[in-house]
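hiii so my PI (J.) wants the whole complex modelled not just the main chain, which honestly fair. so below is everything: four entries, each one labled with what it is. i double checked the lines twice but i was tired so who knows lol
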Amino acid sequence: MGPEGGTLEESNRNLDEISDLALQLQNETGVKVLWVTCNLFAHPKAQVKKGLDIAKKLGAENFVFWGGREGFLSLHNTDVAAELKHMSNFFKMAVAYKEKIGLKCQFLIEPKPKEPCKHQYDYDAMSVIGFLKHFGLDGHFKLNIEPNHTTLAGHCYEHDIVMASAFGMLGSVDSNTGSPDLGWDTDQFPMDIRNTTMVMKTIIEQGGLQPGGLNFDAKVRRESTDLEDLFIAHIGAMDAFARGLRNAIRIVEEGVMNKMVKERYMSFSSGLGKMVEDGSTSLEEMEEFIKQHGDPKVTSGKQEKYESIFNHYL
Amino acid sequence: MGPEGGTLEESNRNLDEISDLALQLQNETGVKVLWVTCNLFAHPKAQVKKGLDIAKKLGAENFVFWGGREGFLSLHNTDVAAELKHMSNFFKMAVAYKEKIGLKCQFLIEPKPKEPCKHQYDYDAMSVIGFLKHFGLDGHFKLNIEPNHTTLAGHCYEHDIVMASAFGMLGSVDSNTGSPDLGWDTDQFPMDIRNTTMVMKTIIEQGGLQPGGLNFDAKVRRESTDLEDLFIAHIGAMDAFARGLRNAIRIVEEGVMNKMVKERYMSFSSGLGKMVEDGSTSLEEMEEFIKQHGDPKVTSGKQEKYESIFNHYL
Amino acid sequence: MGPEGGTLEESNRNLDEISDLALQLQNETGVKVLWVTCNLFAHPKAQVKKGLDIAKKLGAENFVFWGGREGFLSLHNTDVAAELKHMSNFFKMAVAYKEKIGLKCQFLIEPKPKEPCKHQYDYDAMSVIGFLKHFGLDGHFKLNIEPNHTTLAGHCYEHDIVMASAFGMLGSVDSNTGSPDLGWDTDQFPMDIRNTTMVMKTIIEQGGLQPGGLNFDAKVRRESTDLEDLFIAHIGAMDAFARGLRNAIRIVEEGVMNKMVKERYMSFSSGLGKMVEDGSTSLEEMEEFIKQHGDPKVTSGKQEKYESIFNHYL
Amino acid sequence: MGPEGGTLEESNRNLDEISDLALQLQNETGVKVLWVTCNLFAHPKAQVKKGLDIAKKLGAENFVFWGGREGFLSLHNTDVAAELKHMSNFFKMAVAYKEKIGLKCQFLIEPKPKEPCKHQYDYDAMSVIGFLKHFGLDGHFKLNIEPNHTTLAGHCYEHDIVMASAFGMLGSVDSNTGSPDLGWDTDQFPMDIRNTTMVMKTIIEQGGLQPGGLNFDAKVRRESTDLEDLFIAHIGAMDAFARGLRNAIRIVEEGVMNKMVKERYMSFSSGLGKMVEDGSTSLEEMEEFIKQHGDPKVTSGKQEKYESIFNHYL
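here's the output for the full assembly
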């Protein structure tokens, strides 16, 4: 959803035209609109209502809140607690309106650090999860992870995908990349097979992304001035994810690494470890156990072995 | 709490000696031990029990869990979801034992990113808040913020102090600093008056830190080889915080900036804004309001004016 | 110098109009145009010729080459050695044309990392110095340092100003700032008194900047929407540099820190140290000296003392 | 070369013992000592003399100056110009002594940013090249690039290898890696095939590294506690470089990408471009040319196509 300027009515008229076109394309080609992404620049609250109406009309399966300006530029002029509360109330209104109009799609928030605000409230996966849980919104939202945003927040490429998945909150993926040595959002086409393999492995292990998916939020470089570059970029990036998927399937099906991980955590499958896992023991019992049996044996993490095995699948 | 090696019994004996000495010093000098900080390196779970016993003996008012190794070095060999659950169960055991022995102190978690693990689960304030809320532990813990850790997580110096405070979770402060151009934990003595002013302003605005406080988790540089450097460093850093406190008091008492902030958010004090603040409106009402009254007037953020005024207080 | 699009002739016509206007303003107000800054986007080589003609017409005292796109986006498609050679040849042409038309101004290169190219050849002060010396151009250029660029290259605010000065290459300063926790070029108005003091101290110690100066390459934040914000921002930043200058003058005149530095390096003023300083000793002589006199005594760097003293001047 | 503490004589005795052992091993196994790496911690100048004597005794082919502490922790207490001069005089003494004892090996400087000093003078390849050229030392030294240091300086993995090679200064490679999301020197075993391919491609294109080579400056992770981890790590990393070498050979031999690069720069092979390449044209001629022929046609950089092709070789 786009147009930033103009009055609300003009903006709504534009959105109607765009969505009519989308609906027509959808009907003619059979290709479904899966996402409606809503940035919150102009008339934000009224615009989101319009966006939800359009999502209903298009039968969209995902609705992404891309918090372009949900943050502060300076702490001096900002009441952080008030802003967080306003933001949560706004999300609650969106949930209420969604239910009112019978829109069935998944709501998604896309974490993004450092741009355009000095601090974005949706800095990374854990920031958004903390916010949603604090305001009781975690039942209504999942996360749409963009790896370029993840690396800007100081994490490795697949980090937020793994963390969101561990908390049961991974809903969709903006499949792009940045350069980890740059501090801005380059939105490049993802081409690194290692990265795509890690992402697909996590998606497989959580049983897929439905109704989410992979969305190419990427653009060709400024120097890529031929029309064919657009096609080459999409094909190259799709190939990168396809190779990642094939690698991930083999890794998961052959189960070598998974078996090693299981063995590493085996001590939590019985005895005292099982009681830690279940939360049914106490510090006193643990002390007593260590006094009797000595410290638990340290087992090697074998990171280099895992890395070498992983390389066999690339 | 220190000794890393040896058996549990040796370690406990060492801790007994240290805590007896601390108790004796406390009695003779009247200077209280305010914090017991517990790192989780060797025999972690049994050690924490011992630490809680010592905290009880010393009458400590704060107990800091400094999660030295609560994270992963490689995603290949790690089951993130399992580790988070184990960690939460461990914290629950600590809460249970604390209540059992009648220990009254505040439990604190100290966020720390990137060291020593590639990823620490307690990356920054919001990561810890998300974790605590997910596992229902947020009533039992507050945060001990170390600004050097904050800057390593990609935020400005005072960021996590402000965020923790906004969520009602700021319990104590490790008063040190790093160099924002470096990516490792230098633990320098804090000397920047701007930074100390921002920290003290937040602490004043939330009504103080009790039972927490400022703890100099800092060391002199490797080149500072004179004995007097230790004293100069502590005095210089205390002076820096004292100047920060005086600046912050004047800023808060004179109220110039606070009044500007209030005016900036005034639209949330009445009418539709008040209904957003209270969470008692809906997207439909807001759309209706904008149709009738037009877009709300944008007021200037005036960041440069705030910054100029702030400079008058330094 | 601005206009990016259009043909060379259109662009030149625009530049003629702009420079005529500047000349008129200069004549009417007595305020001189000190810098002509030339970005190298469109028709770069022809445009620079035009820029030099205009600089001559305006009597400019500085000509800044702002290397907006002097770098690579990808190593795959780039011949680094060829590009460096082309760039050096281009600078040589500019030197030749400058001499031909009798333009007396100082040529300046402005280091800039990471934007807009993934790698800029003029990454930081030392990168530019290395380039200039390799191609024999160091006699014809000085550096125009923008501290926001310096922090993006991973250095502290004043770093490139100090390094350029140490190599005798500091010609001018773009007085702005960024946020060290952000990885992009925010071009904010400089408001940190500590930073401005460090910059002015370096400038004083090298005997000034002439014909260079301080140039506000800064813009108000996007949220600063009032007209007065522009004035407040310039005034606030000028005040910040004025306070920095006053602080620096007192630091230099009172000489406390300078005396401490002199004492720290005193061992290089006599004996073997003097011979190291002069380059008139050898490894054999040094070994002999240490065998006879033992290792040189380590003296404390006393960083915390310096920092405490420095704070007295702020 | 190691021992940090003790008197010069003790230190020298230790070094004699170590080097005798190395010599014996060399004779018995036929495996040559290729590098002597000298850190400059204790008795630095005398120690380097000893190191050069040992290098002579062992027939070392490379002598690496690893500037562990060649930098400053604080600008307040530092005379940067003096320190740079002292450092250059020290290197000149080393060159003189090397020639005196007839040592034939290649001198190498290893760039390193941010650790252990806040600023290292040998920050990255270009910093060292600038320093060497300024003090007339560039004929006597090459660079030993450690990619983990390169990424800490804010560049991509292979950046300093490419830049050093472009300036004819690439002498040797410390084959390790870090995590680009971390800001400290993790010295991990290199396992990323993409990275090793890029490094080997550069080495092939410059005709090899002799007398330098690849040196595993890496250590297993703290959690890798089995003895076999050491072997697995070395084997895995060697395999990674072997795959990188095979990929690079195919890329170079098949020449697809190289041909594309040649075509991209074709305009510099004839006409005006050739004159820029040769440095035999002028701004006037170029303006004239553009007036007659219009702007040169922009050709697409086709980065995504290069990246897709590159992926075919991995």
